[in-house]
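Check out one such.
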Amino acid sequence: MKNLYKHIFHASAAMLLFTSISGCSSHQPAHNKVTDSAVMVTVANVNSSTSGQINLSGQLSSTQTAAISTRMMGYITAIRVKIGDKVAKGQLLVSISSQDIAAKQAQADASVMQAQAALENAKKDYERYKALFGQQSASQKELDNMTLQYHSAQAQLTAAKEMRKEADANMAYANLTAPFSGVITQKMADAGSLANPGAPLLMLERPGSYQVTAYATENQIALLQIGMPLTLNISSANKTLNTTISEISRSAENTGGQYLIKANIPANETNGLYSGSFVNVSIPVKAKGGTGDSQVWVPVSAIVHQDELDGIYTVSNDNRAMLRWLRLGKTQGARVEVLSGLSPNDAFISNADGRLYNGVLVKIK
């Protein structure tokens, strides 16, 4: 009986061990199957179009704008204009406390009067000694001394007059006038405020003379030249105008990789226009080789947004999803323009049946 129990114990232990091993071996393939499962995706090719024109977003601005500021520090006693006022060239705009400058002007006036009196006295002495020297009643040394005093008095009078000019120039910065006829568009200070050197107090703009500024990409700027025709669509004024490119900047160092272009508004088309209005700019172009401006477009739904960055998933050579960052342009309906990051020959993931992340295994439908 004892041997029978012993055989039953060994048989049960063997059965339990076999069951445990079988369970482990059956679970392991399931784990590998989950790890190696691929996300089913749909891949599309980049849509490249040749539009025959460049479309830019621009802004309307005045051709002449001035920031009214002073180079002296003092309290503003009066601002004689408000936003929207029309002013004439030379009109007084801002007055700044100038007691210290007035005192310097008075000192300069006194110095001028004193120098003039000293010069008149030195001139009389010089003429008297010159006559005495002609009569051999004065020595050469005495005449030389009088000549030196006379020239010194002349120099002192010149210095005093220059000091008066400096005081007058500083007083001009205490009374700010309009450099040209225009309209006040901004007011940054009020009476009683402290004016600091170089800090704008008012913005003056010449009305009736406008220009459009826009920014082109690196690929677009190579197709543009001064004098090329363009069309402006100003929706705020319900106007469509034709003009030409007047300026092109060949540097994008301080504009984030964008190149500045300008176009002047015809003088007879400025009615109803306001600075700051947005403008759609269309420029017909013809690229080298007889083709138009090549543009790259992708669906908006394929774009991935992460921390203010825009990207799109592509497929690597080993069939894994790779996130590629893009720089996007304008949006038209359900598609968006890609300025950089994709070329016309690239492919991207347009749809996925599961969650995509960088490096996940994918399978193309």
